[in-house]
Amino acid sequence: MKWPKKVKHRNKVLAKVYRPCSGRDSYRVTWYAAGKRQMKSFPTYAGAGGAREYAEALVKELAKQSQAIMLTPGQASDALASIERLNTFHESTGKRVSLLAAVSEYCVAAIKLHGRTMTEAVEGFAKTMGTVKRQELAVAVEEFTTANESRTHASNGQRAQLSPKYHYNRAIQLRRFAGSFSGYAVCDLGKHDLDTFMSAKAVAEFSAKSRNHHRAAVRQFLEWAARKDYLPVGHRLLEADALRREHANTTEVHCYTANEFRALLERADGSMQAIIALGGLAGLRTQELLRLDWADVWRVKGHVEITAGKAKTRQRRLVEIRPALAAWLQPFRQFKTGLLWTNTESVFVKTSRDLWAAAEVIRKANGLRHSFCSYAYVLHGEIGTAQQAGNSPSMIHGHYKGLATKKEAEAWFAVKPAKSATNIMPLTQKGVAA
Fold this sequence. Notes:
The protein is built from 19 helices and six strands. It is an alpha+beta fold. It has four domains: about 5-70, no CATH class; about 75-125, no CATH class; about 135-245; about 260-410, hpI Integrase, Chain A, CATH 1.10.443.
């Protein structure tokens, strides 16, 4: 017999049997597994438990590519220990994971970690995403809206922390946002979702200014969600391309003429006349007028004081009472304290509409303030007007430059009562007779 004996399977040598030699009194079977030469010794060549029988059975297993037979002893030991560890994991979590899945996931993560350990990655995750609470988007929007409700209330004459109208409109915008992602949790949102919302027909058809209002509402909500741990601190959703502000066209400014202003003043009753005069000759905003107290009119000689709590900018300012305004305010000297307008804002709006109709004057959006700023710009420039109106010089320059002539401005600030006012009516507990 020729040695070593080659043991084949389908004409392919997969193992060899060696005879005893000097220093060895056993037969040896050799083969290759996992790239390494393996060997096993036997006392006899043939018969039960002999080398030949083992080799013939071995090549059949090798031919079938049996995983167990291809493992080295060390690999087999590691595999068994790993399987046991996965079984323990299954018992404690109820989640079954195969050895292949565990190793594959580890390899993918290790490549992405660029040398960092899995432990470092988990600790970093626990500090960010690990604290995030899963909250349905629609529920979170209602929670945000309710949380801000208390900020819309303020004592009489003071400005609330949050405008009720702004709060109402923002709630509508955010409910529209949540309705676009039914079934979403806040933490499910991605940048592409924000892009989808802003490009949707329901939002895309709005004006650029309105779309910017939607962007502002969503940004405020996302910042709040991060504080509530509904989003990780480093979520980066605010970097979404769709949240970049658009350049909206400047709203066109329309002014009243001096004759229209006089018609409004002469048709106004009660303190509504003083409110119209203050709006056109002092440039107060509507909300500032509704917060104004008679004490604010008389407290500083020759000036109307808009306190920080009543000003839109939350900064105190003084507005000069020019001769025409002084003449219109003179009949109201008897009123020392109390709000100029003691009824609701909705009643004020209705009263204003009735007044404009009675005076046969076409309403212009924010017309009294626009008129004051446009005409004051001609006479006092952007800095002087900005100080009186409570705006920045750049804003005054950008919106009101070149809208009126000096003649028109002089005529506006010369509108005085034609005679002593006779339509001043006493204030009532419920408001001003109109």
